[in-house]
């Protein structure tokens, strides 16, 4: 029996030109390259230029993904854009991207699940495609976290960066076997009891300001590995796969220690882990597609490979997705 699957046709990414190093941060606030590298693995991050918005980053990434897929923008009928740093409160940043691509059919909307945003967006688009509602989707993660950081708070401002990544999905009939290409399973979770551990202290309905990111880092860290590994085990169980079967583990890039500990707990070999946190910092919803684009471009991820995505972030929200490339 055949199964409809959301097959990845291409991916792309974009990083703003300006690079901010740990040394530059240490010249501004009470921190050091040594502390940041030891605690997080981050060495540098990219920062959007003045006048460069989340939609600009997203549009670059979307065009790169369409080029990689060899597809004209008119073939897209769904855009799901994950961001916590939209251009404006409304309309959705996704419609700015849609307009930039010259598309005026289908649907485009934003989705907000903070650092888990890309996995939530991928799952959402996958469900729409498999239901037959749309044919081809752009799934984008795009962020300008530099705009919501408190640059005097050394506990958070050293961690985040700006960027965008995108994938193109197409609904295709596959044989309905574990060897199918496309999104094989997705698992999403949320637990609002933790909402005050990582949040932005402003918003249209509360302060009428944008606000700044606040985080109890140690508390987030404490929960991260358990939540991440639980939801990956769900993906393994749903598909009858094991850590051995995974070709590439592309986690949300928040902290190298969290990534290493999660891979270790799941017995995923270190050489299968794609790491970009050193170069990009934590780019929230953009981090997975940014890392994916690097691993596809350098030839690591090849057709037929089994790729595991995972993310955890504010809310808390967390999720996993297993995709055959
Ligand atoms: O993507 C969304 C999910 N977010 C995450 O996954 C982040 C999870 N949390 C983390 O990655 C880590 O908790 C951090 C990297 C944020 C912090 O690392 P930590 O090992 O948990 O450090 P800590 O917060 O326990 O702080 C240890 C010390 C403190 O000093 P005292 O109180 O021991 O004297 C901090 O004040 O490090 C100090 N500290 C810093 N020192 C130099 C905090 N930030 C800095 C800094 N530079 N930038």
TrEMBL record:
It catalyses: malonyl-[ACP] + acetyl-CoA + H(+) = 3-oxobutanoyl-[ACP] + CO2 + CoA. One of its GO terms (biological process) is fatty acid biosynthetic process. Pathway: Lipid metabolism; fatty acid biosynthesis. SUPFAM superfamilies: Thiolase-like (SSF53901). One of its GO terms (cellular component) is cytoplasm. Residues 253-257 are annotated as: ACP-binding. Keywords: Acyltransferase, Cytoplasm, Fatty acid biosynthesis, Fatty acid metabolism, Lipid biosynthesis, Lipid metabolism, Multifunctional enzyme, Transferase. It is an enzyme of class 2 (transferase). The last Arg residue of the ACP-binding site is essential for the weak association between ACP/AcpP and FabH. Belongs to the thiolase-like superfamily. FabH family. This is Beta-ketoacyl-[acyl-carrier-protein] synthase III. It comes from Bradyrhizobium icense. The lineage of its organism: Bacteria, Pseudomonadati, Pseudomonadota, Alphaproteobacteria, Hyphomicrobiales.
